[in-house]
Design a protein that fits this description.
By secondary structure, the chain is of the alpha/beta class. The chain is built from five helices and twelve strands.
Length: about 210
């Protein structure tokens, strides 16, 4: 589950265009690494799935416009099932815990607060823990949709910024490390780089 960060601040038509560019870029980045993906957007989120996990994760970590990525397991809309799945991931929790729930899409039968409270109660039926909502030792992160739940895994970050190409082409010298840094920062703002001197390969390690 890909969070697009800054692009969400744009108007709806601009956000739609930025999302389209990001999806095409992610497909290309995965193809370069020998991976194929299914990709779709929904409510300001981009969902990416495929079989070559390592290659896909590397592509997500190196694609401008990707702010953060939450791996997830899709579960039926049932607090008891969510609690059970969370404990399967962490069968021997200790200390404190909290259920962190955010609702996406249209409002359904559950609010984020009521669903989080019910999941927490189901967890406490199975294990003896204390609740700490501000700084828990174990955070159960949940994305709540009208007809399903995503149990989120460990988040990893992308480079952020704007999708490559939404701001046009920039000619750049790539002779020094400072040149490369400046080019990277321009790419972070959505520009594509065409080297005048130096090689585009020098940007790859960034």
């Amino acid at each position: 589950m890909v969070r697009i960060g800054e692009s969400m601040l744009k108007s709806r038509p601009v956000r739609r265009y930025f999302t389209k560019v990001l999806k095409n870029t992610l497909i290309a980045q995965c193809r370069i690494r020998g991976a194929t993906i299914d990709i779709r957007s929904e409510g300001g989120l981009v969902f990416v799935s495929g079989k070559q996990d390592e290659e896909i994760v590397d592509a997500l970590k190196h694609t401008f416009g990707v702010n953060a990525v939450d791996p997830y397991t899709e579960i039926e809309l049932d607090p008891d099932t969510v609690a059970e799945a969370a404990l399967e991931r962490n069968p021997n929790p200790s200390g404190t815990f909290a259920v962190q729930c955010k609702r996406h899409g249209q409002k359904g039968n559950w609010t984020s607060q009521s669903f989080a409270g019910t999941v927490g109660a189901k967890v406490l039926e199975r294990v003896d823990l204390k609740v700490n909502l501000s700084e828990p030792d174990w955070a159960i992160r949940v994305a709540l949709f009208p007809n399903k739940v995503h149990l989120l895994g460990d988040r990893f970050m992308g480079p952020g910024g704007l999708p490559s190409g939404v701001q046009g082409l920039v000619l750049a010298n790539l002779e020094s490390e400072e040149d490369i840094l400046c080019a990277w920062l321009m790419m972070h703002r959505g520009c594509r780089i065409r080297p005048i001197t130096g090689s585009a390969e020098s940007l790859q390690r960034w």
